[in-house]
Design goal:
The protein is of the alpha/beta class. It is about 25% helix and about 35% strand. It is built from four helices and eleven strands, in the order βαββββαβαβββαββ. The protein has helices at about 20-30, 75-85, 105-110, 155-160; strands at about 10-15, 35-45, 50-55, 60-65, 70, 90-95, 120-125, 140-145, 150, 160-165, 170-175. Strands 1, 2, 3, 6, 7, 8, 9, 10 and 11 form a nine-stranded mixed β-sheet that branches. It has a two-stranded antiparallel ribbon with strand order 4-5. The radius of gyration is 15 Å and the shape is globular.
Length: about 180
């Protein structure tokens, strides 16, 4: 895939509340025993991706269960329409796995998830039921051309993923 459309990303910067907003929303689903998800939008430039928007998905276009979730293509089209209008792109997503499950990507995540270069895929533990969860408690994975998803180690997450305390995310609800 072309660097023109998917420029290389060496570092990700998250607005200060991106993780907290995402976890709080996923915890609603987790309280019902289901996985949750939030999409992250922003910009890529000069090897850096900045996450500035959190997209919360609602309505019949997203079905969430204990070990699976399905996002309908028409709902993703709505997200894409918003992104185009706002001048941002899909940088990554975070989703939760159940209590006692791994923060690694599941076979389903790998087979049916977004597969574009430098896409960030985060897995939060315990159905996002622990508000004190940090990025270091999550599985942080990046899609790499030719090899697929690779989990970043602790030192690599510390080096490549930063929290920008000077910026707050714009929170968007799609499918309400």
């Amino acid at each position: 895939m072309s660097e023109r459309y998917f420029p290389r990303v060496d570092r990700w910067r998250l607005a200060a509340d991106v993780l907290d907003v995402s976890l709080a929303d996923m915890a609603r689903d987790g309280a019902r025993g289901n996985e949750g998800v939030a999409l992250w939008l922003g910009n890529r430039k000069s090897g850096r991706a900045s996450v500035s928007h959190v997209v919360l998905l609602r309505g019949p276009g997203v079905r969430k269960g204990p070990e699976l979730m399905v996002i309908e293509s028409w709902l993703l089209n709505d997200v894409t329409d918003f992104a185009i209008d706002a001048g941002v792109c899909l940088i990554g997503q975070i989703h939760s796995h159940g209590i006692g499950y791994s923060t690694s990507l599941s076979e389903t995540d790998r087979k049916y998830g977004v597969a574009v270069p430098h896409y960030l895929s985060i897995v939060a533990p315990d159905f996002a039921q622990r508000p004190s969860t940090t990025i270091m408690d999550c599985g942080v994975h990046v899609f790499e051309t030719g090899t697929g998803y690779r989990r970043l180690g602790t030192a690599e997450v510390e080096k490549r993923v930063r929290i920008d305390t000077s910026q707050l995310a714009e929170v968007i609800t799609v499918g309400a």
